[in-house]
Specification:
Helix content: over 70%
Structural class: mainly alpha
Radius of gyration: 18 Å
Order of helices and strands: HHHHHHHH
Shape: globular
Distance between the termini: 23 Å
Largest sheet: none
Number of helices: 8
């Protein structure tokens, strides 16, 4: 095993700690809320209180009065660690695990964490700008959609490194982006409009812009 392989393996292991750590945090919080829902720990009020103080409320960007002074800013981060039940959690954790495994060799731990947070904040911006929902938005799906954009960029870079034509690279990017958009549209229909597509769009666009504007954030940089 040469030195470069050892460095890549070490970087991959460090990046793995990031996505595994995030998944464990999400699972621990949702497990605690499920236990509270059933009256096994704390109070059944814990979940509504968590949403009230940690969910993303679009109205707080307009005329609503926050529960505490920093809530309109803090919610851009806190909403990502809350979920709407174990099914919601499971979908996001499985997606995070798959994407993390795909990206851990092309992203350092710092870049993976930074892109996750940037995408999550972008998801909040998308929801705040495009949604008039009076309900709170929770979940890591905006950040995960951003990692999907990173995954597409990583594979595009790999194709370029192999000497693929621009047509093939752009075709792959267009195909995957179209597929992701179609799957989101299908999910929106199946969930009777309950899907926070604004968050997904915001996360995807935020990651794409971050990689375009900051070369150090790009896979393999």
């Amino acid at each position: 095993m040469d030195g470069s392989t050892t460095v890549r393996d070490s970087r991959a292991a460090q990046a793995r700690y990031v996505w595994l750590g995030l998944a464990l945090v999400f699972c621990a919080i949702e497990a605690l809320l499920i236990l509270a829902d059933r009256g096994l720990v704390g109070s059944p009020l814990w979940r509504p209180l968590a949403y009230q103080y940690g969910g993303f409320w679009a109205g707080l960007l307009h005329s609503w009065t926050p529960n505490y002074g920093l809530q309109p800013v803090a919610m851009f981060f806190s909403y990502m660690i809350l979920h709407a039940g174990w099914q919601h959690l499971l979908g996001n954790v499985l997606a995070l695990g798959w994407l993390g495994a795909q990206l851990e060799r092309s992203l350092s731990a710092g870049r993976l964490a930074a892109l996750f947070v940037i995408s999550g904040v972008g998801g909040g911006i998308g929801f705040g700008l495009l949604s008039a929902s009076p309900r709170p938005m929770v979940g890591a799906s905006g950040a995960i959609m951003g990692l999907i954009a990173v995954w597409i960029a990583a594979d595009a870079q790999a194709l370029r490194a192999e000497g693929a034509s621009k047509r093939r690279v752009y075709g792959m990017v267009l195909w995957r982006t179209t597929l992701i958009a179609a799957l989101n549209a299908l999910a929106w229909v199946l969930e009777a409009g309950a899907l926070a597509w604004e968050t997904h769009l915001g996360g995807f666009v935020a990651a794409a812009l971050a990689m375009a504007l900051v070369p150090a954030l790009r896979p393999g940089a």
